[in-house]
Design a protein that fits this description.
There is one protein chain. The protein contains 12 helices and 3 strands, in the order αααααααααααβββα. A 3-stranded antiparallel beta sheet has the order 1-2-3. It is globular. The two termini are 29 Å apart. Helix content is 63%, strand content 10%. By secondary structure, it is mainly alpha-helical. The longest helix is centred in the C-terminal third of the chain and has 24 residues, at 206-229. Mg(2+) binds at residues 116, 119.
């Protein structure tokens, strides 16, 4: 965590302020962390992928298994765990505008917000320090989550169904496209609830595509919960 914390402390004041600004705390949404989180999400995924690929044996770790490991490592709960170790809640509290009161407490206590700020930190570090330093810091910061994903993989399909079951809903998966030649096929899958699409995923196998669709559906549910909380 030391490398990512150091990069965070090096950020210019303006960039650092944006990282810890919730949309409800500014008149302009562009002043919030949203765009940085969008960028950081991609940097995070690439950093973890580039770290895993040369280190795991091709015979044991095919594309489908790599997809699951990466998805678990960069998931919302993983980002929340990193946020807590990085001190994001305390930094958000310090950045909250005077008079925010209960609104600030709700924002800071929302997992989706903490996950997004972690991504925003990564995006800002990438803009300021470049990919190499940021990727190295990201891999170090997410090492506990990466180890957990390797030793105790999570089934995103099961996790999604458990969440939906609380409301009596059932998720269905449908292959919508098969792209590429037989030896290099990519599958596209949609996850839907009562005909409403809740996630879309792609993968080298149908199972991998379903797992990715389930993961993105969980992210969408977290987004909705975060908006409701805000």
């Amino acid at each position: 965590m030391e490398q990512l914390r150091k990069l965070l402390d090096e950020l210019p004041e303006e960039l650092s302020r944006q990282v810890f600004t919730h949309a409800s705390w500014s008149e302009r949404r562009s002043d919030s962390y949203s765009r940085l989180a969008f960028l950081g999400d991609s940097v995070l995924g690439l950093a973890v992928t580039a770290h895993l690929y040369p280190r795991l044996e091709a015979e044991r770790f095919g594309a489908g298994r790599l997809t699951k490991i990466r998805a678990q490592t960069v998931s919302g709960p993983s980002c929340v765990a990193v946020a807590e170790r990085l001190g994001v809640p305390e930094r958000l509290q310090a950045a909250a505008p005077v008079g925010a009161g209960q609104t600030a407490a709700t924002v800071i206590g929302t997992d989706r917000v903490l996950a997004s700020v972690t991504e925003a930190v990564i995006g800002a570090c990438y803009l300021h320090a470049g990919y190499e330093r940021t990727a190295e810091a990201v891999v170090e910061a997410f090492q506990p989550e990466l180890s957990q994903a390797l030793e105790h993989p999570v089934d995103f399909k099961s996790t999604l169904q458990e969440r939906l079951a609380r409301a009596g809903d059932i998720v269905a998966y449908e292959v919508t496209a098969e792209l590429g030649p037989p030896h290099d096929r990519t599958f596209e899958v949609v996850a839907s609830v009562d005909g409403r699409v809740v996630g879309r995923g792609t993968g080298r196998s149908k199972k991998a595509a379903e797992q990715e669709a389930a993961r993105l559906a969980i992210v969408q549910l977290q987004d909705v919960e975060g908006e409701d909380a805000g």
